[in-house]
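G.,

No rush on this.
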Amino acid sequence: MEELITNLHIHTKYSDGAATHRELMKIALEIGLDVLITTDHNVYVENVEGYLREEKRQVLLLVGEEVHNPERIPQKCHLLAFGVNRSMFAYAHSPQLLVDQINASGGLAFLAHPYEDALPTFHQPDISWVDWNVDGYAGIELWNGSSEFKSRSTNILKTIHYALSPRHLALGPHPKTIQKWDQLMENGERVVAIGGSDAHALKAHLGSVSATIYPYPFHFQSINTHLLVPQELTGDLITDRNMVLDALRQGHAFIGYDYPTPTRGFRFTAQTLNQNAIMGDEITLGGGVTFQIRLPEKTECRLIKDGVVIKTWKTREICTYLTNQPGIYRVECYIHYLGKLRGWIFSNPIYVRKP
């Protein structure tokens, strides 16, 4: 399998971002990303998908949309639409209709920042997802970089600190989002987890202090969704677009916080006597299942079954675990950085089913 480092949930000048699509591609190419997916608010930007190439490097830009109902008071329920070649804004008034229309168009619906706290300092409201009776969506945005800024800026001093020193911010997904994800899967739903930067690069002002929260280069080096695909980018837009969307649909992905150290190369797999599975796959229990976890470097690794940690390793790059129990198995990895233990890798699950 090949690995495509993907930064998604990005805003441009077409909504409330600070850069053009071309400018974003240049930044991504310099940093070494493979794929960008922009998601402007309630607008689908046409005729910008494609590649930027330089020598042997290339970056693919795809376009999605972040849809919400601006007339809803208080503001709630933002949704990311991928793989749909037109705006879904006409259906924003009904979250279920919105999801249904995205699916009917062959696209994917992801609930954006399911739990996002208010930030009174900058007059930012709580815009969490609340319509949990909706079904049919592909997954949720487990880790959102901008949401974490809001939830951790609990007073003016912390707001200024994290605005001026973003590398001190990230600790991991919102605990309520992780809890909800496990709950949804335990209820029998397949829910793909992605990580989004929610990049705007907007200027914020607090008295005489002004800062960009956060620059695009920082976002592009931080919370990424790593996709596992059958081949490298081919250079054919339709082929590569379908390959990226299929990996998102299947959950062949993990979330990596790449700023402390790159997460490229992480793998979580399962094997039986006659089956093999990667993240997002189902495997049938029969004679036992062997999990293997490969880390880019030695750090704390936790294997989680049905929302509960069942095994922790702290000094290994290769971790193995045998089980004869059905369940939903996923991996969380943590790394020490700037004096704190921080979330580093969050895998999508492998579903072990009864025969």
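When you get to it, here's the other one too:
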Amino acid sequence: MKRSNRLWQGLFVLLITVVFLAGAAAAKSPAEKDKIVIGQAISLSGPLAGGVAISGGKIYELWVDEVNKDGGIYVAEYGKKLPVELKRYDDKSDIGTTRNLLEKLIVEDKVDFVFPPWGTAWLFAAAPIANKYEYIMIGGPGGALKLKELNMPYFFQVLNFSDTQAPALADIFKEVGVKSVAVVYRGDLHGIEYGNAMVPFFKEKGIDVKMNKSYPPDIKDLSQLLKEAKSLDVDAFVAACYPGGGMLLTSQSMELGINFNAFFMTVLPFSPPLFKGTFGDAVEGVMGGGAWNAKSSPGAKELVDKFVAKFGEEPDYWGGLYYWASLQHFKQAIEKAGTLDQKKIRDIMATEKFDTALGPYWYDKDRYFVNHPGEIGQWQKGVFEVIDPGPKRTAAPEYPKPPWPKKEK
């Protein structure tokens, strides 16, 4: 009888052990997964929607399509490729809504990753939220020196901005012989930073800054600023603006027949569909933030071809290649990590260099992308040429800019 009891006790212990080991194995194995969901709160309506449509928004869609055409992203943890789903919410161009929707994506929807919103102030608002939840945020359309000051380990800055573009523009102006400049800027984080950043570099090059004024983001008439700049007889007109302000400055300077030898705007000239599509050949000689084009690399040419095939228009020639390459780098980091664990992927992204459409892609110690394809672009004979000095220049700057075409009576 005692022997029988010991047998049953042994079998019971064996059963418990088997159950425990099976449970432990199950705990170590990831749950079955059939896709990677990436959330994005972005301006699909409101004042910024036009910017999203011409700059950045479509690149994320194209990347998802291309990844899924290849079967998805291989994640060793699951032993297979996982397709990507892009889950978007409309923040209606409102910063508070951006914050709320991003938190909803992370906390309620429990998406695997997040993509950035559009605009510098919006990115500045979103990055701390992603960092709080230890979600990687790859900065897209937007950038500010203040983001560097926050030192968020899960935030990666992709786009170039004032700290590299301002000195490049000053170098170009010095090269072509600009003696004086008028600066106007949008009264928000983007405009104020650029407006303040450019002035010291101009002065360092001996360029007289005769005007430095802000304007409200919702302004409907910029003619007085243009007239004032003209009255000061400056060689160059520089505007730190968003697309709405840029369109207004361009159309009103044309209507008033106000010409400057150099005409530069930050956010607008890089867009073939909006800027060149609206003003045609009149954009010849206009400078803008950027820059890259199909000549920048074989991968850049391939991106242009893919973008045109899908959307029937050229991509934006400021951030398009940057965002595309950052997503290629991101995908390779996931595949190398072999997991969807944010920290493990973050650590690889922060330290590893991968080949991308623009060439080698990596981040510096502050997680800022440094291998820019260009800083300043200029429209020349239908191409947004890279004109900043150095080996990435695709054409010498054209100066003076041709005058605006005269309006037919």
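The longest strand covers residues 208-215. Residues 17-22, 24-29 have pLDDT under 50 and may be disordered.

Enjoy the weekend,
O.
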